Amino acid sequence: MPIVLAPINKPVKVIRIFAEEKTKKHLESLGITINSQLTVLSSSGGSVVCRVKDGKIALDGNLSTKIMVTE
Amino acid sequence: MRDDGDKITMLTMALAGNPNSGKTTLFNSLTGSTAHVGNWPGVTVDKKEGVYKKCPEPIAIIDLPGIYSLSPYTPEEVIARNYILDEQPDCVINIVDATNLERNLYLTTQILEIDVPVVIALNMIDAVEKVGDKLDEKALEKALGVPVVKISALKETGLDELMARAYEVSKRERLGKTVIEDAAVRHLIGDVKIALDGQNVKDPLFHAVKLVECDSIEVEMHPSALKTVEEFKKTHSDGIFGDDYEALIADARYKYISKNFSSVIKRKNEDRMKMTSSDKADKVLTHKIWGIPIFLLILFAIFHLTFSEDLLYLGAIFGLPSLEDLGLTVDGEAINYGVRWLACFYDGAVFSPGVIINNIWNDMLVGELFGFLEGLVENSGMADWAIGLVNNGVIEGVGSVLSFLPPILVLFLFFSILEDSGYMARIAFILDRMFRRFGLSGRAFMPMIMGFGCSVPAMINTRTLADDKERTATIRVIPFFSCGAKLPILTAVAGAVVAVFGIGNADVITFSMYVLGIVAAIVSVLLMRSTTLSGETPPFIMELPSYHAPQFKNLMLHLWDKAKHFIKKAFTIIMASTIIIWVLTHFSFSWQFLADEEINQSILANISRFVQPVLTPLGFGSQLGEYGWVFVVAAVAGLIAKENVISTFATLAACLAAVASLSLAGLDIEAEDGVDAVQAMINATNVTVPALIAFIAFNMTTIPCFAAVGTARSELGDKKRFNGTLIFWLASSYIIASMIYTIGSWWWTAFIWAAVIAIVVAVIVMRNKKAALK
Q1: Which pTM does this prediction carry?
Q2: Closest C-alpha among B255, B724, B542, B275 to residue A9
Q3: Which CATH number is correct for A3-70, 1.20.1300.10, 2.40.50.140, 3.10.180.10, 2.30.30.90?
Q4: Where are the domains of chain B?
Q5: ipTM of the predicted structure?
Q6: B204 φ, ψ to 5°?
Q7: What is the pLDDT of residues B690-724, one digit of tens each?
Q8: Strand B11-17 vs strand B59-63: parallel, antiparallel, or unpaired?
Q9: A34, B441: Cβ pair inside 8 Å?
Q10: Chain B 449-488, CB below 8 Å of chain A: which residues?
C-alpha cells in the first residue's frame, strides 16, 4: 500500500519507490530505501511525516502515493 | 604542508556532514574569530574559511555546505562534492550526528570511497549519553578504519583531540575503501576502477562506484567506462532490485551500516517509538488546522517587534501622552540631551525593539557622526562644488545605506532564530500544500520570506531548491517581497500622499503595497509555471530536525557576516552611484558646473526627458510638465540601489526648492524620512495620487538593485535565463504600474484590463491543453 495509507505509529517496510531517479536518490540518502523500515507519525491531507532511522522526514502528498510499504 | 608546484600552501581540512549535524557550530568553535567568507571556485557563493591554530602548524578549515550524500541532488551537494574531489583537502573531517547515527553514516560510507584522509567527529555525544545510551567509538573506529573522536561542538569538548587526530592522519596517504559487500557488484566496481585507473583518473574507486550508481555527473564525465557498466547490467539481474543498481548500492550501504553499528550503540531504552518533546511540539506546530494560524501569529510578532512604533499597542490602548504633551520637546526639538535619548524609546507609545535600535543608531550614532563630518567639510574652505560633492554625494549616500542597517539586521536575527531552532523546516512543511497550487514546493518559502530582509541572501538561499525551474521562478519573484531598502520609499511616498491630499492612512497604504508585492509574486509564479518555466512541481522531502534553543554565539556570527556585507555595499556601489548622480545633476552637457537651481539644464534632466514619454502610461511621464523628469531620475537611480530613490528625492528636492517660481516654503526638505522631499516633488509636478501609487508599485517590482542583479546572474548561471529575468522584472513592473495608474484615474479601464487578462489566461490554458494532448 502507499505510505499515505499506512497505519500510524506502526513500523512498516518499504517495498517499492515509483519516483524519478533523482528523487529516489535523495530519498535513499535520507534513509528511505527499498527494504528499509520506517514509521508514519502523522498524515494529513496526503502529506506524511515519518520516522526514518532516528530522524524525522516530511513528504508531500504526491510523493507519498509513490512509496509503497508493507507491514 | 602540501606542495602545489612551487607554491607551498597551508594545510587544509574540509568539514563535511549532514545538515543539522552541528557543522556550523563546530566550525565556529574551531576557528573563532579567524573565519571569513570567500567564494567557491566557479560560483559566487559564500564559502566560509577559518584557521585552527592549536596544532603544530596552522590549519585552514573550510566549511562545506550541509549535505546528505555526494550524489548531486541540490547545487549545494555539487559544491561539496567538487571541493573534496578537485581541491583535494589534506583531510576531511566528517561530522556525524550521534543521535541519528545510521543515517549520518550513509554520507560517511561515500566519503570513505575517496582517496583522502578522513576523521569522524561523533557530535552531540552528550545528548546520546544523557538519555543513558552508550556509544562504543573504538568499535566504530575499528569497523570504519579511520579515527573516530567523540565531541560536543556545543560544549566544545573533544575538539583538541579531534584536531590532533586529524593532523596526524593528514600526514599519511589513504586509499578509498568501499563497504559494498555484494560479490557481483564488487566485481563490477573492480572492473570499472581498473578501466578508470588506466585513464589516470584520480579517486578511481569513488568514480567507479558512482558510475555503477549511474550518477548523472559521472555518466557525462566517463562515457567509455560507462559501457562496461551497461554491458554488465545486461547480463546480471538482481532478484529484488532488477537492474536498479543504484537502489541496490544504497541498500548495501545501509545493510553494512546496520550490521556493524547495532553493536556500537547500546540503547538503554529499546523503544524508538517513545514520544520526544520535539514530537509533542510538532503535534501542535504542524497541526492540520492550527499550524498555519500559529505561523501567521509568529510572523506578525516578528514584524511587530521589528517595525512597530507602538509596542503591543500600549500607546493606543492607554492613550499615553507624547513627549510634546509632556513638555519635553518643543516643536519637535528635545529640550535636553537626555530627552533625545528618551525619544529613541518612547513618544506617545513604547517603541518596538527594532525601532529602538534603529532610533539609537540613526539619531544618536550615525546622524551625529555624519552631521559632524558634514560640518567639517562645510568649513574646510574647499571649492563649492567639492563641498557639494562630498556632502551631498558621498556622505549622504553612505549615510542613507547605513541607516537601513538596523531593521535589516533585526529582521535577519529573527529569521536566524527560526532557522536555528528548527521551526523554519516546519513552516516549509505546513506551507507546502498551499505552495503546491502555485507550482512551487514549500521549500521555496524560506528564500521568499528572507526577501523581506534583503534579496541578496534570499537568492543565495535558493540553492536549497533541487529543481532548476523552481529555482529560477523563485529568484525572479524574490524582489517582489519588499526588502528593507524599499520600505523608506513606501513610507515617504505614502506619508506625502496623506499630507498633501489628505486621503487615506499611511500605514494602510504601506501595508497594502506589501500585499500587492505578494500577490504579484503569486500571479507571476503561476504565469511562469504554466508558460516558460512549466514542469512538474518538484517533490517536497525535508528533514524535520529536533527543536533546540538557538545559540547566541552562532546568531551573533550570522549577524556580523550580514553587517559586514552591508557596510561593504555602502562604501562601494552606493557611494559610486550617488557620486555619479550628483555629477549628472550638477553638470550640463558642456561640462559647465550648475548651481542647484539650474537643475533643469543638467545632463540627467536632459536624458530623463528623453525617457519620460515611455513612462506616461504609468502616470509619472510626460504629463507632469517641466519638472516631471525628477520621478524618472529617482526610478532610474533606484535600479542601482533602492536606497537611492529617497536620497535622490532629497537631492532633487533641494534643487527644486532653490527654484523661485515653485512655492515650496514650509517644507523641511532635509528631513530624514523623505516625506517633505516627496511633497516638494508633488507640488512641483502636480502628480496625481494614482500616479504616486503606481510609482511605488513600479519601484517595488522592477529590477531590484545592482547587488541583487549581480547575485541573480551568478545564481541563475545561464545567460539566457538571466536576460529573461531582467525582461521579466521590467515587464511586470511596467504592467503593474500602468494598471494601477489607469484604473486609479479612470475606473472604467478596469474592464479593459479584465478583458485583456481573460484573453491571456484563455490562450495559455488552451495552449497547455493542446500540448498535453500531443
Answers
A1: 0.81
A2: B275
A3: 2.30.30.90
A4: 2-170, 183-266, 291-386, 408-536, 588-749
A5: 0.95
A6: -60, -35
A7: 999 999 999 999 998 877 888 888 888 788 999 99
A8: parallel
A9: no
A10: 466
